[in-house]
Specification:
- This protein is α/β, with parallel strands linked by helices.
- It has helices at 10-17, 21-31, 48-63, 67-70, 78-88, 92-104, 108-119, 124-144, 150-172, 195-206, 248-259, 293-298; strands at residues 7-8, 37-38, 44-47, 178-186, 209-215, 232-238, 265-271, 287-289.
- The chain has twelve helices and eight strands.
- The longest helix has 23 residues, at 150-172.
- The radius of gyration is 23 Å and the shape is elongated.
- The two termini are 42 Å apart.
Amino acid sequence: MNNVKKDFSIRDLENLSGIKAHTIRIWEKRYNLLEPERTSTNIRTYSLKSLQKLLNITLLYNTGYKISKIAKIPETEIPVMVREIVAQNSEKSHAINAFKLAMVNFDQNLFFSTYNSLLSERSFREIFYEVFIPLMTELGLLWQTDTISPSHEHFITHLIKQKIFINTEKLQVLEPTNTEKVFVLYLPENEIHELGLLYLNYEIVLKGYKTIFLGQSMPISNLIDLKKYYDNLFFISYFTVSPTKDNLKDYIEEFSTTLVDSESNVNLWILGRMVQHLEDINLPEHIKTFNSIEQLTSGI
């Protein structure tokens, strides 16, 4: 069971807010902005409420408010000011901070209001590249340092997925205009993180192609059925944790043996962290690797 993290170290606060621990201590001592508790060994710990307050303060501080002025604002007014700034100002850094605040508090209303504010000035594609990708990169680092819990990550990821689904569905009501290729998007067995694959599906549909989204943990043997319906198949997958480095060559050979023949045009395009280990493998013509979504979509 996932446990919601309720106690944070000063290093956690630094990671989430971007404010150095030394500065947080100064704000704490000089302006009494935070009230940490102390462990039996005299180590500072901070509550979820303290983290929320610091993120709000950080947003005001990054907007141009002096810390001395922020310290004089009644505590109940700070969240109100933050919401007004988020509603009026959709700059990238403010939006990312607001999304982090929404994540920490499991506040979907703040997520939606921030997203809608961005959408009034940007396209969905711009929001994804300029805000969601940097946000998820930050969350990856926060995850590695144990600053956020699985519950936080799942909450924010699910909301982003919702937006991808909505925008993809708007396009899928139209008939594909490019029929020379059919793209099948899937993840290998034991791969479950599909956010990048979902967005890639949106990009390909946007270009007018037919896509078939199969999602997580698909064995190669389950891909054979697609050949009964289509000739020009382009399989697209993310190799993040699976297949492992030692199993990459075997996976490529199994894919080729199982799906590639002279009667149909079958290709495999690969993204993800494991791509770096494929550089030492002599790949057949029907398999290509890409370092980013942009690189792949520009080649379609």
